[in-house]
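Ticket #304: bound-state structure for NAP.
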Amino acid sequence: MPSKTKLNLIIGNPLEQSLSPQIHNFVYQKLELQDRFKFSKKSLEAQELEGFVKSKKFENLTVTIPFKEKIISLLDAVDSRAKKIQAVNTVIKQKNQQGKDLLVGYNTDWLGGLIPIYEKVLNKKFNYNSNQDLENLLASKFLENQKVILFGAGGAGRALGYGVLEVGAGLVIVNRTLSKAEKLKSDLKKLFPDAKITAVASASQGLSRLIKDSKVLINSTSLGMLDLKHKSPLNLPEDCFLAGSVFFDAVYKPLKTKFLQQGEKAGAKLINGLEMLVWQAVFQFQLQTKEFAKVDYFWQSLDF
Ligand code: NAP
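RESOLUTION: The complex was predicted; output attached.
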């Protein structure tokens, strides 16, 4: 590795399954940045997090489970959107006016979810060539007067709930633990006081009535992955769903979860978790390298 190569790291635990090094290193090659950047994994135990972050022995960080919230108090500054979401998945080292290195936190998960939703709801590709394209997408309020059902109120749920409210949606948060859905509702209500937001327990009687007429249904729970692969947060007949609705699962292993299979049977448009993974990486790459790469390269990195 040339001495000028900067080390970007993903920190979390467990990291065996992480696709981030594969994605970022592939795009570094494509843009001939491999002498400037290298992307590796660094698995950390909870008690190691503070010491490692404060050591600053890295260039930038990608942050995953279970540190997205805990890392905030260890940073010098947090961008306004990450502060609102209360989670950081990207840390950038930047110099202040005195030349001191500062660590600044960002969140790109919310955009990672929002872009595929935009593409499916509007039935068109998002041509991302400049920051103005993103500003235009957000200003379009493309979910105005539409109802979104969000299963899950954890870290991913926070980012996805924030994203759909940014573009005008009404939101129903459904979670196994009602108090967590209510906490998310009250946090989001402070940011979007005019939005219609409801919190309900997964076991609630009135769920089918609430879910009817929803444009987008999102699974941000762990149901559907690994040992929970035969499970879905949804337990309703297919005819409950609006024709042309969108089913989005944040889980990407397996690619077609039980939740997405239910959506398929209902004739819905489907978004799998890889689309979120790719889009959050696109925005993260831009922050970490200050370079702009075509979205196609990120998809090519996953051709295996
Ligand atoms: P998290 O903060 O731990 O939240 C987990 C959520 O799942 C909570 O709402 C939890 O409900 C619910 N849940 C867990 N086990 C459950 C069960 N047995 N029955 C019902 N609900 C259950 O995790 P997270 O960071 O939000 O991640 C959630 C999922 O999103 C994971 O599968 C993760 O891989 C995926 N994800 C994907 C991407 C991507 O780029 N595609 C990015 C981030 C996350 P309670 O509150 O009741 O515990």
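RESOLUTION NOTES: The CA atoms of residues 237 and 266 lie 9 Å apart.
TICKET STATUS: resolved
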